[in-house]
Design brief:
- This protein has 2 domains: 86 residues, OB fold (Dihydrolipoamide Acetyltransferase, E2P); 68 residues, OB fold (Dihydrolipoamide Acetyltransferase, E2P) (Beta Barrel), CATH 2.40.50.
- 0% of the residues lie in helices and 43% in strands.
- A 7-stranded mixed sheet has the order 4-7-5-1-2-3-6, with no helix packed on it.
- β2 and β3 form a beta hairpin.
- The chain starts with a strand and ends with a strand.
Length: 163
């Protein structure tokens, strides 16, 4: 199971990232530096498989949240360098939650419960419809308002199933 963790901040640099010695991946990988304003910086390695919510084009100066697997091995360097799994450009009109949701569609951290409506789009990362139950899976949930209960409840606009 992926242990999704996140880091939020402003993109300060985007540059090419070399992964091979013979240039076979040249231009396919980038290094995105993100600073949170408190002096903390994280470098995200963005690969062709990194999922960008709403397929946005991120540029220097954008506020983003990057999600990575906290159980994945990382080089012991500063600033820390993580393989970006999901990138989200911050938007005041929508919230995004990335994580594992159990059989009751409650997030593994116990902070969000999903109430799916007939209008909730449930998709795969490739944009195709997902026709099964999204419970007990890693999900990217795009939603608006929530209740003030614990866990907060919401009817998501869109669910992307992370197969």
């Amino acid at each position: 199971m992926v242990n999704f963790q996140s880091f939020q901040g402003t993109v300060t640099m985007i540059s090419d990232f070399m992964i091979g010695q013979n240039g076979e991946g040249e231009g396919c990988y980038t290094l995105m530096s993100v600073a949170n304003g408190n002096g903390d910086v994280v470098n995200f390695v963005v690969s062709p498989t990194t999922y960008f919510v709403d397929h946005v084009m991120v540029v220097v100066g954008d506020r983003v949240t990057g999600y990575y697997d906290a159980n994945a091995p990382v080089p012991l360097i500063y600033p820390p360098q993580y393989q970006a799994l999901v990138m989200v450009e911050d938007d005041v009109n929508q919230n995004v939650k990335v994580g594992y949701f159990n059989g009751q569609l409650e997030s593994s951290d116990g902070q969000l419960k999903l109430n799916i409506s007939p209008y909730t789009q449930i998709l795969l990362t490739n944009g195709q419809a997902f026709t099964k139950n999204p419970a007990n899976r890693n999900l990217i949930v795009i939603y608006g308002p929530t209740t003030r209960s614990i866990p907060a409840q919401t009817t998501p606009y869109q669910i992307i199933v992370w197969c």
